[in-house]
Amino acid sequence: MSEKLRVGILGGTGMVGQRFISLLEDHPWFEVVTIAASARSAGKRYEDAVGGRWKMTTPMPEAVKDIVVMNVSEVEKVASTVDFVFSAVDMTKDEIRAIEEEYAKTETPVVSNNSAHRWTPDVPMIIPEINPEHIEVIEAQKKRLGTKRGFIAVKPNCSIQSYAPVLAAWKEFEPTEVVATTYQAISGAGKTFKDWPEMEGNIIPYIGGEEEKSEQEPLRILGKVVDGKIEKASSPLITTQCIRVPVLNGHTAAVFVRFNKKPTKEQLIEKMISFRGVPQELELPSAPGQFIQYLEEDNRPQVSLDVDYERGMGISIGRLREDTLFDYKFVGLSHNTVRGAAGGAVLCAELLKAKGYIQAK
Ligand SMILES: NC(=O)c1ccc[n+]([C@@H]2O[C@H](COP(=O)([O-])OP(=O)(O)OC[C@H]3O[C@@H](n4cnc5c(N)ncnc54)[C@H](OP(=O)(O)O)[C@@H]3O)[C@@H](O)[C@H]2O)c1
After folding, report:
1. How far is ligand 1, taken at its centre, from the CA of residue 226, in Å?
2. Contact of 16 with 190, CB cutoff 8 Å
3. Residues 128 and 13 reside in one and the same domain
4. Whole-number Å distance between alpha carbons of 253 and 64
5. For 51-101, how does the pLDDT look when each residue is reduced to its tens digit (9 = 90+)?
6. pTM for the predicted model, two decimal places
7. Is residue 282 in some structural domain?
8. Burial of 63 per CB tally in 10 Å (0-12, 13-18, 19+)
9. Domain of 173: which CATH number?
């Protein structure tokens, strides 16, 4: 019998769900045994339910093709087959908030890609290299939910991954003001060029709800645990513009930063490239060996050359230089559906398993 933990993917037929299934193929700790989606897909073989919607560049793993898709709403039934679930359903926020709590209350941990619980005070929102200690609020959450092992943990929005990690690496220099413009890939909207042809050669200067997330979520990541809740940091002040660009995968950010204690460029680079966290110390299976790389060439990072750095789990930074108005400016790049979505959630689940929060039922 397999000793791997049994995993369910809620929303497994969608783009992020497919990414989970691809990333978990041959995972050393986790095995996908259950896939759930809407009533439209329930009862069908996974391969038939997805049909022509497979959006990954690698083929659909053989092991999942014959899994019969379950209905996300049949919570007890789905939960009885798994040790924990990843959540990537597309429902209303209220519905997601409710259904993720229902799963947690069946004693099934939920590691979610959705934004519904990102501001629930006792739900940790984790970038494992930056704020692994936030998982301690899970104890308070379990008390609230009345569970022994069921809880919800989330990962932050894809847009912040291209600059929040360096703000964490530069914490001791006290960044006070940040201006970021993000250039976001169409896969962030669950789309490819085939199903969004209007994006070819186009730019759309609006992504609903994205700027607020991009400004606020880094503060929660940089916050601290107080009495079983996350208290968000009060600085830096962050303002953003989020723009959809004709790129398939990879969110780029052009960023200006002001510091309280202005460092040298060399110090900033040294802090970035030496930045390590618990995932590297514990050698978690999905951890990038090097979390942040710094590229010296003036024309890097480029989406086509750098988005898959460290299998899409690393962050690429370039063009760090002094600015005339702010102290420094730079360009960052991250893979939005790997580090920014499914990969970030898988790393989070690995951290939770390593720390004993996720176990076999
Ligand atoms: N794409 C990204 O990079 C990204 C990044 C961060 C966060 N997100 C968030 O992650 C979620 C999933 O995104 P996505 O791009 O993967 O979306 P998607 O491709 O549209 O997939 C949505 C999934 O949810 C299921 N679903 C839809 N309505 C449902 C319902 N009423 N009940 C149960 N299941 C339902 C779908 O099942 P059927 O196939 O049966 O319809 C499908 O499995 C969204 O909330 C999105 O905002 C996406």
Report:
1. 33
2. yes
3. yes
4. 35
5. 999 999 899 999 999 999 999 999 999 999 999 999 999 999 999 999 999
6. 0.97
7. yes
8. middle
9. 3.30.360.10
